[in-house]
Design a protein that fits this description.
CATH class of the largest domain: Mainly Alpha
Order of helices and strands: HHHHHHHHHHHHHEEHHHHHH
Radius of gyration: 23 Å
Strand content: under 5%
Distance between the termini: 61 Å
CATH superfamily of the largest domain: Hypothetical protein af1432
Structural class: mainly alpha
Number of strands: 2
Helix content: 55-70%
Strand order of the largest sheet: 1-2
Largest sheet: 2 strands, antiparallel
Number of domains: 2
Shape: globular
């Protein structure tokens, strides 16, 4: 009764271009609950929040290693900020809040340890730009690359195991698409799965997905700036050299100096001004059916300048470069160890290898058969992909713990 009433109310409450909550389709059919009080997108939201990958985000680096300060963003706090921003935009424009919430909560599930550095290292390993000992290069090529949005869909479609009848969380196609397309997609490069029901290289089919892509970018630039200022990698006064200084109220705040109280005012103002401008311009559906949110020309110049400032002063800083170096060493050594000695992998990971290929579980073999099978695994692209899944799912602390085990 509740669900029918809610769906009926949506037709009056939501904008014509908004996605209705009964439009989503799941990969697997599910039994109808006797009492249904949640929409399909609300179910998706709850499944994401309760999954293991969501819990691990609290110990995954956003940009800066957590030991540098207790007040820096991690992958989970970033996700919550994007969710809050996305819901605000959806509410203001009468779009589907439940859909943007589910997409936002799931969009970064596939991030590896050590932030974007870890993501880049895993991709370079799989492409054999970072060499692995005794590697079968053809098998690595077949295994595909690593990019967090593709991996996020892989997690919700295959890797989470909470149901008896299927792998994954069985999310709706609208949420899966929004997760996949919150950043760039080049499907043939990554070759991870069929992505049933998703047109990988087509633009997102809902305005809600476009909202998450935009608010993710706003959150990222604003909180990277704040974290960089906290670590004294950048100073507020340096923004005078950029187009950010051309905009009021930014100019008045920047002129006040480099104090933490000024930083708080600046970050709050950046969020407010960019969000107000974004909502004020609304959403446009272009001829190719792409949904586009954009800033006014003046704010677009300021945002581009902010992005350039963040990358130049913060992302390319010595602090982040050290993290990149650590990520490369740790993830390369882990991958090398697991590839050349599969017995180092946990039982459930080896079970996943045997489930996805015709190679038996090493734990069930002895002597020469075990050695022969370990050699056969080197040419198995499914084995290589499972190693990437295992390492990609690790938290920073767990990756370091495993690294110390193989490098005592």
């Amino acid at each position: 009764m509740f669900l029918k009433r809610f769906l009926k109310d949506e037709n009056y409450r939501l904008a014509p271009i908004a996605t209705r909550s009964d439009e989503g389709r799941r990969l697997h059919g599910e039994a109808v609950l006797k009492v249904e009080y949640r929409t399909p997108f609300q179910h998706d939201r709850d499944r994401i929040i309760h999954c293991l990958a969501f819990k691990r985000m609290k110990e995954k680096t956003q940009v800066f290693a957590p030991e540098q300060s207790d007040h820096l963003r991690n992958r989970l706090s970033h996700t919550l900020e994007v969710t809050q921003l996305s819901r605000s935009v959806a509410r203001a424009l009468a779009l589907n809040e439940d859909l943007v919430e589910a997409i936002s909560l799931g969009h970064d599930l596939g991030h590896s340890p050590f932030g974007h550095s870890g993501e880049a290292v895993l991709n370079r390993i799989l492409k054999q730009e970072i060499p692995i000992d005794n590697a079968d290069k053809d098998a690595f090529l077949r295994a595909g690359g690593f990019k967090h949005n593709y991996q996020s869909v892989r997690i919700v479609d295959e890797l989470e195991n909470r149901y008896r009848d299927w792998d994954g969380l069985n999310l709706t196609d609208k949420v899966r698409e929004g997760i996949l397309k919150h950043t760039g997609t080049r499907g043939r490069m990554y070759n991870l799965m069929q992505y049933d029901g998703l047109q990988v290289e087509a633009p997102a089919s809902t305005p809600e997905a476009a909202i998450v892509a935009m608010t993710d970018e706003i959150a990222q630039q604003c909180h990277d700036l704040e974290d960089g200022i906290r670590l004294k990698l950048a100073f507020i006064s340096q923004l005078k050299e950029t187009a950010v200084y051309d905009i009021e109220p930014f100019r008045s705040i920047i002129d006040q100096g480099n104090g933490y109280d000024v930083m708080n005012d600046l970050i709050r103002s950046l969020f407010h001004v960019f969000m107000d401008d974004l909502i004020g311009n609304g959403v446009v559906q272009e001829e190719d059916f792409r949904f586009r949110f954009s800033f006014s020309p003046e704010l677009e110049a300021a945002f581009s300048a902010l992005r350039q400032f963040v990358y130049t002063r913060i992302i390319f800083s010595h602090s982040v470069a050290r993290s990149d170096h650590i990520a490369k060493r740790v993830l390369r050594d882990l991958f090398n160890a697991f590839y050349n000695n599969p017995k180092l992998l946990p039982d459930y990971v080896l079970n996943r290898v045997s489930k996805s290929s015709d190679v038996p579980n090493l734990r069930h073999l002895t002597g020469g058969e075990q050695k022969k099978t370990a050699g056969k695994l080197k040419s198995c692209d499914k084995f290589i992909r499972v190693i990437a899944d295992y390492i990609g799912g690790m938290t920073d602390s767990y990756a370091m713990k495993e690294y110390r085990k193989i490098n005592p």
